[in-house]
Amino acid sequence: MNEKYRIAGSKGRKEVLVIVWLEREISASIQQRIGPEYAGPLGLLQAIADGTKLLLKEDILPSRGEIPLFSIGPSIAVISILLSFLVIPLGYRFVLADLSIGVFLWIAISSIAPIGLLMAGYSSNNKYSFSGGLRAAAQSISYEIPLTFCVLAISLRVI
Pfam family example for this protein (predicted)? Predict the structure, then answer.
């Protein structure tokens, strides 16, 4: 493979850890507090500790809610966003799914995310969670309309 088109190797992963560490240290100095220093020397392993903590967290389910919908709702929102990467070209001649309707498919897939947000808010059987889910879905829908017009204006040519 040509070295010019290499995306990221093992060198890129190390740089991400250093950038995350620098971000935490700089934000700690701006906020006049001590930065991460508990995981490894100078807090260099803090990102790994945060990822491990996230994986080991307990999944709290509502006692009176719809448990299947509560689990499926956020998954639908995340999966619809990840599916949109199928039609986005990641490089020259490097597209996961080369379709003639790529732009329209991207718009359709990205409009599924608010359904997952509504499901997550509704399934907890709590009026505050439901209103939060409605608000998040309304925000998602309100930015989708201008984004769709911008994408279509760029991608469609007037003959």
Answer: NADHdh
Question: Could you tell me where the DSSP H helices lie in 43-112?
Answer: 46-55, 67-83, 102-110
Query: Whole-prediction pTM value?
Result: 0.59
Measured between alpha carbons, how far is 15 from 24 in angstroms, rounded to an integer?
Answer: 14
Question: Residue 14, class by beta-carbon neighbours within 10 Å (0-12 exposed, 13-18 middle, 19+ buried)?
Answer: exposed
Answer with the residue of higher pLDDT: 10 or 144.
Answer: 144
Residue spans of alpha helices (H) in the chain = 10-30, 46-55, 67-83, 102-110, 113-123, 127-155
Q: How far from chain centre, in Å, is Cα 122?
A: 21
Report CA-CA distances (Å) from 141 to 87, 94, 107.
21, 30, 12
